[in-house]
Design brief:
By secondary structure, this protein is mainly α. The chain has 1 helix and no strands. The protein is 77% helix and 0% strand. The longest helix has 134 residues.
Length: 174
C-alpha cells in the first residue's frame, strides 16, 4: 500500500498566501490599467478635439493666407500699373518740356527776324520816301527843256560819233 502523504498546514498556507498575493497584484494591475485606459481615452479625446480644432484653424489660416496673397498680388499689379503710368507721364512731361524749349527758341528767332524785318521795312520805307522825293525833284527838273546849239549830233567821247536816243558804255575788266 501506498503511504499516505501527510499534508502539512504550513505548505498549504504558504501556497495560498503566494497565490492570493499574486491574485491581488494581478487585480491591482487590472484596476490600475483600466483607470489608465480611461484616462488615456479622455486624454486622447481631448487631444483629438484639440487636433481637429488645430486642423480647422490651420485650414482657416491657409484660406486667409491665400486671400491675403491674392490681395498682395492685386496690390502689386496696381502698383506696377501706377509705376508704368508715372514713368510714361514723366517721359511725356520731359518730351513736352523739350518741345516747349524748342518752340521757345523758334519763337525767339522768329521774334528776332520780325524785329529785323520791321527795321528793314522802316529803312525801306525811309529810303522809298527819299527816292520818291528825289524822283519828284528829277521829274520836276526833267520837265524843263534844255537848249543845245548845233545840228543835234553830239560827240560825247572823243572820236566817236553818237547818234540815237541812248548811249551805253560797257567796261570789261578781264
Amino acid at each position: 500500500m501506498k503511504k499516505k502523504r501527510t499534508v502539512t498546514p504550513f505548505s498549504l498556507a504558504f501556497l495560498d498566501i503566494m497565490f492570493c498575493g499574486f491574485g491581488a497584484v494581478v487585480l491591482l494591475v487590472i484596476i490600475l490599467n483600466g483607470e489608465v485606459l480611461q484616462k488615456r481615452e479622455i486624454k486622447s479625446e481631448d487631444l483629438r478635439g484639440e487636433l481637429s480644432r488645430a486642423m480647422i484653424e490651420e485650414q482657416l489660416a491657409f484660406e486667409k493666407l491665400s486671400r491675403i496673397r491674392k490681395q498682395v498680388e492685386g496690390v502689386k499689379l496696381t502698383t506696377e500699373k501706377i509705376k508704368t503710368a508715372i514713368v510714361s507721364d514723366a517721359e511725356e512731361q520731359e518730351k513736352a518740356e523739350y518741345e516747349r524749349r524748342i518752340l521757345r527758341r523758334k519763337l525767339a528767332t522768329l521774334e528776332k527776324k520780325r524785329v529785323a524785318l520791321e527795321a528793314e521795312k522802316a529803312a525801306l520805307q525811309s529810303s522809298t520816301r527819299i527816292l520818291q522825293s528825289r524822283n519828284n525833284d528829277k521829274l520836276q527838273n526833267g520837265s524843263r527843256k534844255i537848249g543845245f546849239t548845233g545840228d543835234g549830233k553830239r560827240q560825247y567821247l572823243t572820236g566817236l560819233k553818237l547818234g540815237g536816243e541812248r548811249t551805253l558804255i560797257l567796261v570789261d575788266r578781264s
